[in-house]
């Protein structure tokens, strides 16, 4: 890996390091938004679920259009402008006080993500040799999880998990990141120069939509994201209200940090152990682990029980995060990378319905029915394995 780091181009290095710093600030704030909305502002659970779902919903609605746009847009302009605007959106979170303000801001948050992520992944792909992309995507994933480990701990250290103060450093980080990108990408390398697309837009859309292994892959992983989203929404609300814990918010902060620590410690070990397995097999195992971790949430009543759940969940998330971007990259032709990475954001459909359904079940069944609530959510998650099996069958 040391040799690979020496070969990284400035744009690649900037995106990888920027990912770490911005995600650290991100995990200081965003995972605790649902707790703040319900515990501090006393916004009802269904409305809180709508706020949380606005982010992935916008991503899903824009996914195909943004992917096509990314294939034609100057990557420098997309990355710099969106990072700057994104920073402003996060700063405005600090001043929000009403349901509608949070709904609007989280929708804008989704717009920025939908533009920025496909462009950043396309830069990583075009700036990296094919045999090195798996490792580069995993380094990026490591940066995300290092931020996920430090962010909640910093939030706990400064006692800001039930406030919006952390959104200020988050916004400032993204604004500074935009200036770093402006400098780094001032003279774009030939590799990320825009290529003239030879196929009409309608043909490119048909090529992607006719790729059935890719479509089944997206459906299957969307169910995995449904389960994944429960740990950022329903579980946070459940623990903050649970009578069997003295400080549910603190327990949740520990779970997030433990989750990221597990991934950091195990990431490259698991990557080496699973090299001989097919990517779809790995994604099926990931879905099973995520589904069973959700099922267990309604059974455990101690912090050690939830630490065990976090371990199972971490393994599922690790297998998903270490392979999905690489699979999408391998399926996409050179001219369609932006389109494929854009469509890949359709997996966030699971994150749209996850918080809404979880909040509805909590509100209608009540906190005392936690076992039934998470049993239902876990069964829904496990449906993803069926579609991932179809992906494997079609791919073969």
From TrEMBL:
It holds the Pfam family MFS_1. Gene3D superfamilies: MFS general substrate transporter like domains. It comes from the Bacteria. PROSITE patterns: MFS. This is MFS transporter. GO terms for molecular function: transmembrane transporter activity. The keyword Cell wall biogenesis/degradation does not apply. It is found in: Cell membrane. The chain crosses the membrane at residues 12-37, 49-66, 73-93, 164-186, 207-231, 251-270, 282-315, 371-390. Residues 11-396 form the Major facilitator superfamily (MFS) profile domain. It is a multi-pass membrane protein. It comes from Vagococcus allomyrinae. SUPFAM superfamilies: MFS general substrate transporter (SSF103473). Keywords: Cell membrane, Membrane, Transmembrane, Transmembrane helix, Transport. GO terms for cellular component: plasma membrane. The keyword Transferase does not apply.
């Amino acid at each position: 890996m040391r040799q690979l780091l020496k070969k990284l181009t400035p744009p690649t290095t900037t995106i990888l390091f920027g990912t770490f710093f911005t995600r650290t600030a991100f995990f200081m704030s965003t995972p605790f938004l649902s707790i703040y909305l319900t515990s501090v502002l006393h916004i009802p659970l269904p409305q809180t679920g709508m706020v949380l779902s606005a982010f992935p919903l916008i991503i899903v609605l824009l996914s195909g259009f943004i992917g096509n746009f990314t294939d034609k847009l100057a990557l420098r302009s997309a990355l710099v402008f969106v990072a700057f605007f994104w920073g402003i959106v996060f700063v405005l979170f600090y001043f929000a006080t009403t349901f509608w303000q949070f709904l609007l801001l989280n929708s804008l948050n989704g717009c920025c993500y939908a533009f920025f992520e496909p462009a950043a992944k396309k830069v990583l792909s075009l700036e990296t040799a094919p045999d090195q992309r798996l490792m580069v995507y995993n380094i990026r994933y490591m940066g995300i999880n290092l931020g996920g480990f430090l962010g909640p701990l910093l939030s706990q250290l400064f006692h800001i998990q039930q406030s919006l103060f952390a959104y200020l450093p988050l916004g400032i980080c993204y604004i500074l990141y935009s200036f770093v990108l402006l400098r780094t990408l001032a003279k774009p390398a030939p590799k990320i120069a825009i290529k003239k697309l030879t196929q009409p837009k309608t043909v490119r859309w048909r090529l992607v939509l006719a790729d059935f292994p890719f479509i089944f892959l997206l459906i299957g992983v969307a169910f995995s994201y449904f389960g994944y989203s429960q740990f950022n929404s329903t579980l946070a609300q459940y623990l903050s209200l649970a009578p069997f814990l003295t400080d549910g918010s603190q327990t949740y902060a520990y779970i997030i940090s433990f989750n990221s620590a597990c991934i950091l410690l195990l990431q490259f070990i698991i990557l080496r152990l699973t090299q001989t397995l097919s990517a779809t097999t790995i994604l099926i195992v990931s879905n099973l682990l995520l589904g069973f971790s959700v099922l267990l949430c309604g059974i455990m009543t101690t912090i050690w029980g939830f630490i065990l759940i976090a371990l199972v969940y971490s393994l599922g998330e690790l297998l998903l995060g270490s392979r999905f971007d690489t699979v999408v990259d391998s399926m996409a032709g050179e001219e369609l990378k932006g389109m494929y990475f854009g469509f890949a954001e359709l997996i966030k459909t699971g994150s749209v319905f996850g918080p809404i359904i979880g909040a509805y079940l909590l509100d209608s069944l009540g906190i005392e029915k936690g076992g039934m609530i998470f049993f239902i959510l876990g069964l829904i998650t496990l449906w993803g394995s069926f579609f991932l099996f179809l992906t494997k069958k079609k791919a073969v």
